[in-house]
Amino acid sequence: MEHITLLIGIVIVTALVFDFTNGFHDTANAMATTISTGALRPKTAVAMSAVLNLVGAFLSVEVAKTISGGIIDESAGIRPEVIFAGLVGAIVWNLVTWLAGLPSSSSHALFGGLIGATVVSVGTGGVHGDAVVMKVLIPAVAAPFVAGLAAMAATRLTYRLTRGRDEADTAKGYRAGQIASAALVSLAHGTNDAQKTMGVITLALITGGVVAPHADPPLWVIASAGLAIALGTYLGGWRIIRTMGKGITDIQPPQGFAAQTSAAATILASSHLGFALSTTQVCSGSVMGSGLGRKGGVVRWSTAGRMVLAWGLTLPAAGAVAAGAAFLTKQGSWGVAAVAILGLGVCGAIWAASRRKPIDHSNVNDGPAAEPVGVVTAALKTVSPPPAGSVTAQATAADAAEASAPAARTKAATATTR
């Protein structure tokens, strides 16, 4: 570390700031359904997730290698200023989507930022297009569908297995299962997302000549990235937790268990293969799949549509911000300082805007404001069978009304005679 220059030090600090925003932006991935069903108290849930994110950061470095030596060509003249600009673009987009309560991809914000800054600085030759397609774009499209289909199948299976059993008893078991599966998602998140920051810091160290090309992340890089994402996770991205837990579909304990188990399996498999996929897209897809898997459960497609739009905009939007930042950093030291000042100003403005309608652990389960029912949602409601138990409840109410009707008529007749 004795050869780290001031600029590389700034890049490392900025990377850890991104890691911090990644933590609170993605807390919802592991804990939104657990919090929404009441399986864990909000503060307890984020504390457990933070610890397991830290543990997961030490389990693998395959994704970090994809970032540091796979997407960007480190030998193409990439300078630390380029990485700094890419990180600024990713941080700004993360905060914009956090303010809107949209669970967009921190991973794709990082990829978009790095690609946009690299293209402006050294041209398209600095980007490994085949790696972007194979390890970023294809997993981005496939992962939500895979996780969604798995969650839909798992949800239907869980309801089939517990058919005819007391809902209160099964709910207790599924809440325990939710806690276990949420812990697994948190661990998986640490193995995937914390590594992305490790890869960025390692890339900065390589460009600065501090470590050799294609080197594994040093231990201090692994530890600092794990601590940063854990701290961000503990603070909790309550706005996105509300959207994920209440805004997409109404989640019951069996659905939460199925969604989290499917997401964890998908994330862990991708981490083993070195796919730097979006854990946000995986978890969002699994929540939507669980909504489709329960009879009577309807996905709020207007919310889902805004999420998908944010997913599509993330790469180009973060890339555009990073490209502008990279253009300034090319002007020299004053350009780097200007990017830093502008970035701090934008982040401060977003934080101030969030204080107008604060969301925290005390009101995260109040649910989003009611929104108009869309065409798709209305159509699905007309053809979907009612939720389990509603028919029985309606029949019981009807029987009670019918049984009380003769007594009511007798009482009315007596009153008339008097």
Automatic annotation (TrEMBL):
Biased composition, class Low complexity, residue ranges: 392-418
GO molecular-function terms, A-Z: phosphate transmembrane transporter activity
GO biological process per UniProt: phosphate ion transmembrane transport
Main location: membrane
Alphabetic keyword roster: Membrane, Phosphate transport, Transmembrane, Transmembrane helix, Transport
Recorded topology in the membrane: Multi-pass membrane protein
GO cellular component terms listed in the entry, alphabetical order: membrane
Protein name per the record: Phosphate transporter
Region: Disordered, residue numbers: 385-418
The keyword Transmembrane is annotated on this UniProt entry: yes
Membrane spanning stretches: 6-24, 45-63, 83-102, 109-127, 133-155, 197-215, 221-241, 308-328, 334-353
Species: Streptomyces natalensis ATCC 27448
Keyword Coiled coil: no
InterPro entries xref list: Phos_transporter
Family: Belongs to the inorganic phosphate transporter (PiT) (TC 2.A.20) family.
Domain of life: Bacteria
Protein localization: Membrane
